Amino acid sequence: MAKEFAKKFYSSKRWQDCRNGYAAMRGHLCENCLRHGIYKPGVIVHHVEELTPLNIDNPEIALGWNNLELLCRDCHKDIHGIGGRWDAVNARRKEERRRSKRYLIGSDGKVTENFLIAPPIN
Fold first, then answer.
1. What is the pLDDT of residues 57-74, one digit of tens each?
2. Which of 52, 75, 80, 108 could form a disulfide with 71 if both were Cys (CB 3.0 to 4.6 A apart)?
3. Domain coordinates in residue numbering, the chain
4. Distance of alpha carbon 64 from alpha carbon 55, whole angstroms
5. Whole-angstrom Cα distance, residue 35 to residue 56?
């Protein structure tokens, strides 16, 4: 959920065009998962340097592609620690990791889901 000071920015056409262009340029794949050899759709364009009331009007921070990263929901939650519920979420995610969702790119260029059973995490 966007912070109050950023709601207007996130609903702006400038941000939406920037976000959509960035996601397309990254092939709509999570950059963090991709670094680990996992092909998973990216759904959140994340600001590496967090937006604040002081920097939200700086286009290099707010709209610069050097400050953006396309992430899946799980990676985005990992980065933000899900607002104070991290311990409970970490336990749940540990169990989820036992069954890793993996995605493949088919010959037609579409992302498809491929479920692999991962070994238990001790």
1. 999 999 999 999 999 998
2. 75
3. 4-92
4. 12
5. 28
Residue 89 to residue 112: CA distance in whole angstroms: 26
pTM for the structure as a whole: 0.65
Rg of the chain over CA atoms, in angstroms? 16
Q: Is the dihedral of CA 2, 32, 113, 16 positive or negative?
A: positive
* Residue 70 per-residue DSSP state: E
Nearest to 102 by CA among 120, 91, 118: 118
CA 88 to chain CA centroid, nearest Å = 21
- The per-residue DSSP string of 77-114 comes to HHHHTTTT-HHHHHHHHHHHHTEEEEEEE-TTS-EEEE
The Cα 94–Cα 25 span in angstroms is 31
Interval 86-112: pLDDT, tens = 445 455 555 555 455 556 667 787 776
